[in-house]
Amino acid sequence: NAGVTQTPKFRILKIGQSMTLQCTQDMNHNYMYWYRQDPGMGLKLIYYSVGAGITDKGEVPNGYNVSRSTTEDFPLRLELAAPSQTSVYFCASSYSKDYGYTFGSGTRLTVV
Amino acid sequence: GENVEQHPSTLSVQEGDSAVIKCTYSDSASNYFPWYKQELGKRPQLIIDIRSNVGEKKDQRIAVTLNKTAKHFSLHITETQPEDSAVYFCAATGFGNEKLTFGTGTRLTIIP
Predict the structure, then answer these.
(1) What is the mean pLDDT of residues A51-60?
(2) Does B90 contact chain A (CB < 8 Å)?
(3) In what helix (H) or strand (E) does residue B7 lie, and over which residues does it extend?
């Protein structure tokens, strides 16, 4: 099992550009989550999904969009990148809401 | 919604001594309490968890205790080693929540 796979690992974007962060899991988990972590800080929830076709906002959704067309994939879309979106982005999945999360290795994004 | 407070924010411990990190939660319906360890530059990883029907759980040098009446839970690390240096996050979730609420993290430093 690969677990949770995120691509790319690193990316530099110019202000105003767009990109999609990819996340896929092979554990057949229904629950998937996107977090951002600024340097030296905690985890902030951007969006989450409890199953294919269902998504919901977390605490910091502005500037991002998600989709969940399959159980395996949960891509995060950044539109019109801004310097404030410079961060490390973690995708996670779990069997259900009260089971441990498995995190991907993260995407380090810099917006210049 | 759920609110999780974590203390202390930083903790330095002599190698071989014990370390204790405490978290309080607000929602009395919360029933799942995991702890994550994040080493520098790495992803968060689940190290231990406890459910509300259990008061204490141990796994080698780490243990978690839960006091439902006081709504707090703690992580205990005994015989600390240099590889225990990391940021530790507590979290909680319960009835009506589809996601974990994370604490703000504790940076643990083991002094050789």
Answers:
(1) 96
(2) no
(3) strand B4-7
Q: What residues does B111 pair with on adjacent strands?
A: B14
CA-closest candidate to residue B42, choices B85, B104, B12: B85
Rounded Cα–Cα distance for residues B73 and B75 (Å): 7
Check B49 against A100: CB less than 8 A apart.
Answer: yes
Contact A101 B34 (CB under 8 A): yes
CA pair distance B101, B23, nearest whole angstrom: 12
Question: Minimal Cα distance from A4: which residue of B?
Answer: B43
CB-CB under 8 Å, B99 with A33:
yes
Is-contact B36 B45, C-beta < 8 A?
Answer: yes
Compute the half-sphere exposure of residue B24: CA atoms within 13 Å on the CB side of its CA. Answer: 6
Residue in B38, B27, B46, B32 with CA at minimum distance from that of residue B104 = B38
Please state whether the peptide bond connecting residue A61 to the residue before it is cis, i.e. omega within 30 degrees of 0: no
Reported as a single tens digit per residue, the pLDDT across B60-111 is 999 999 999 999 999 999 999 999 999 999 999 977 778 999 999 999 999 9
A59: left (phi over 0), alpha (psi -120 to 50) or beta: alpha
> Number of residue pairs across A and B with CB atoms under 8 Å?
48
User: Residue A83, preceding bond cis, omega within 30 degrees?
Assistant: no
Q: What is the predicted pLDDT for the residue at A5?
A: 98
For residues B59 and B78, the answer to whether their CB atoms sit within 8 Å is no
